[in-house]
Design goal:
- It is a single chain.
- It is built from five helices and seven strands, in the order H-H-E-H-E-E-H-E-E-H-E-E.
- With 248 residues, it is an alpha+beta fold.
- It has a domain of 146 residues: Heat Shock Protein 90.
- The strands form two sheets. Strands 2-4-5-7-6 form a five-stranded mixed beta sheet, covered by helices on one side.
- A hairpin with a 5-residue loop joins strand 6 and strand 7.
Length: 248
């Protein structure tokens, strides 16, 4: 099945803006919070370290005062570690609401939003479920977040390479699970980023937060799934994620 982009309705445009803005705002707030949480203890560590060096680099070192400064450094390092743990908790998936459904049905439900997204990029979205996949237990909303994020990344990657930008979603299944792939004709992932692409704060975008793919990976791991990518020989990139069949 191929979906070509037409003019979305006002409701679809609103839904797209709400979803896009909410995700952007959420990631922006998270990035700002991370910067605030870490800048303060790291700045304090640098200041105390410089003071400690000056106290010891004297004809008569101020050992007692330097020890106090080093205690302050230790405390600030503990604060930085706690800040990192708070950040990690933001990616915890403790609120998963699983329902029994098919991956292609969840993507079909999301298509009006994806079509509105493609319209923003003057592009096309194609959806090709090869066959009816088995029923799985997963959180519909979280899976839609993953698909939306990967499709949005695809349009952004393809925007400067191909006009109109075409992003294609394919759903396949086998006896082990269901695999969904999102293909784009963009430049692919640079070699220097490939091994750490799913780490938080790693991004190829000048204004990106580097949290979108990290959150996708966190969601899929909470469903015992996996995510990956490959640069295509003919150009472009394919991101994929797999969800396993239920064991029962």
């Amino acid at each position: 099945m191929k979906k070509n982009v037409g003019q979305p309705s006002g409701a679809e445009e609103l839904l797209t803006r709400v979803l896009d803005n909410s995700l952007t705002a959420k990631l922006g707030e998270l990035a700002s919070g991370v910067a605030h949480e870490l800048n303060q203890p790291l700045g304090a560590i640098a200041t105390f370290a410089q003071a400690g060096i000056r106290m010891l680099d004297r004809p008569e070192p101020m050992v007692a005062r330097a020890l106090d400064v080093f205690k302050q450094i230790s405390g600030e390092a503990i604060n930085a570690g706690e800040a990192i743990r708070r950040i990690r908790r933001l990616f915890d998936q403790d609120t998963i609401v699983r329902t029994r459904c098919r991956v292609e049905d969840v993507i079909t439900e999301l298509l009006p939003v994806l079509e509105g997204l493609s319209n923003q990029w003057n592009g096309q979205i194609e959806f090709a479920p090869n066959s009816a996949s088995p029923l799985l237990h997963f959180d519909r909303g979280k899976l839609q977040h993953v698909v939306y994020s990967l499709v949005k990344n695809g349009f952004e990657a393809a925007s400067g390479v191909q006009a109109p930008a075409r992003v294609r979603i394919v759903v396949d299944s086998d006896r082990y699970g269901v695999e969904t792939s999102i293909r784009d004709p963009g430049p692919g992932v640079p070699p220097e980023l490939q091994r750490r692409l799913f780490r938080p704060f790693v991004t190829t975008k000048s204004n990106g937060t580097g949290l979108g793919l990290a959150s996708c990976q966190s969601i899929l791991e909470s469903h015992h799934g996996s995510i990956g990518f490959e640069n295509l020989a003919g150009g472009g990139c394919r991101f994929w994620f797999r969800l396993p069949l239920p064991t029962e």
